[in-house]
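Lesson 9: reading folded outputs for more than one chain in a single document. The general rule is that every protein is listed as its sequence immediately followed by its C-alpha cells, and records are never interleaved. Here is the first one.
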Amino acid sequence: MGTEVVVVRRTPRDAGEEADPVLITEAAPSYEEEHAARKRKYMLMMGLRFPCLILAGVFYHTWWLALLFVVLSIPLPWVAVLIANDSPPRKTEKVSRYEREVRQLEHREHRVIDG
C-alpha cells in the first residue's frame, strides 16, 4: 500500500493575513498617474516662466543675459501645453479576424462563344 501525500496551500485570506501586491513591471501606468505626471510637468514649466522674466529684469544691465532669459521664457507656455496634452501612443493590438478559406465552386474553364 502506498502512502498519500496531501499538499494544503494556505492563502493569505485563509490565514487572516493581507496579501502582498503583485509587482507587474511591464504594466503601463494608470491614466490617473499619467495625468498627474503631465500636470506636474506643466506646472513646473509654467512656474519657470515667471522666474525667467524676473531674472531678465534683474540682469537688465547685461543686455545679452536679460535677452537670453526673455527668449527662454517665450516658448515655455507653448511647450508646456504640448507636453500637458501629449499622451502615450496607443498599444498596437492584433485584431482577431475570421479569415475563411477561398474555395472555387467549379474547377473547369468556361469558354465564351461569340455568335
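And here is the second record, again sequence then C-alpha cells.
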Amino acid sequence: MEWLSENKNVYTVPKGQFIFQEGSLVHGVYFIYHGKVKVISTNQEGKSHTVRLASDGHVLGHMSLDKELYAIGAVALETSQICFVENEIFYHTFVTNPDFALQAMMFYSRELRKSEMRTKCFAQMSTEEKIIYALIYITETFGLDRQKRIEINLGRQEIADIAGTNAEQVSRSVTQLKEKKIITLENKDIIISDFKALKQRLSRYFASEIFN
C-alpha cells in the first residue's frame, strides 16, 4: 500500500469534464476519492448512453488493463477527486502480491456477473420499469438527503440516458409515480417519498443482483 501510495497521481476533475474518453489509449486505472461520475458509451449515430454510475470508492476504466483503447468514457457529474494508477504499477502489484491478485480476480468476476445480469433483466423490462430502475439505481449510487431528495440533480434526458429511452417517456413515468405518491417534485428535483414502494415495483428482479 505504501508503494502504491508513492506511485499514484491524485487530481481534481471539474464538473462536465472527461476523466477519460472513448477511443483513448488505456494507461491505467482510476479510483474515485470523492465525487460523482457517469460512464458512457456512444453509438454510431453519436448518441450517448449511460452504462454505469460511480461515486466515492468506485473504480473506473478497470475493464481495460492492456495496451488497448477505452470502449467507454467517464464524465464528472460534479467536481471530483480522482486517483490514477498506471498499468505498470498495477501489474507489478498483481505479480508481487498474490492475495491482492486473488481479490482483484474475484472483484472482476463480480463486476462481470452484475453486468451480465443487468443486461439480461433490461431486455425483459418495459419502458416504465427501465425508468424506475434508473431512479432506484441513481438513488442507491448517490443517496438521498434529509428531505429524501436525490443527492444529485439529473435532468430528464440524463435519466433517459440511463434507462435507454427518451426524456418524454421519463417525464410521463415521473408524473405517474407522482400521482401514486411514490415520488414528489420540487421544481426540477425528484423527492423519493416512498422508496420501498418504488423498489417493490421491480421486486421480481431483486434476485438478479442488478442493484448490488
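What the second record shows: The helical segments are 2-7, 87-96, 98-124, 127-142, 156-163, 167-179, 195-200.
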